[in-house]
Amino acid sequence: MTAEQNRITNTLKVQRARKDLTQEQLAHLVGVTRKTINTVEKGKYIPSTYLALKLSKILGVSVEDLFQLGSHSNEP
Q1: Range of the structural domain that residue 20 is part of
Q2: Cα separation of 23 and 36, whole Å?
């Protein structure tokens, strides 16, 4: 597996915008700091499973819609 395939990408910023939420508002709803939301959106921090599940529930999308492996190929 290449480094690109190991990278996790996310659509958090897009999904947050669809709900018309600021980083601060989303952070409050899931119980983290705005800085945490910012670093997740920038791909600098990979959230715990617990936080990923909370984010997906608040935003009304699946975890898979929020977070993807860097490669979109059919390889495992």
Answers
A1: 3-69
A2: 9
Burial class (CB in 10 A: 0-12, 13-18, 19+), 73: exposed
Q: For the chain, what is the domain count?
A: 1
Whether 51 is in a domain gets the answer yes
Residue type, 22: T
| Model pTM above 0.85 | no
Q: E strand or H helix at 64, and its extent?
A: helix 63-66
pLDDT in tens, 9-52: 999 999 999 999 999 999 999 999 999 999 999 999 999 999 99
Q: How far apart are CA 24 and CA 20, in angstroms?
A: 12
Q: What is the CATH number of the domain that holds 55?
A: 1.10.260.40
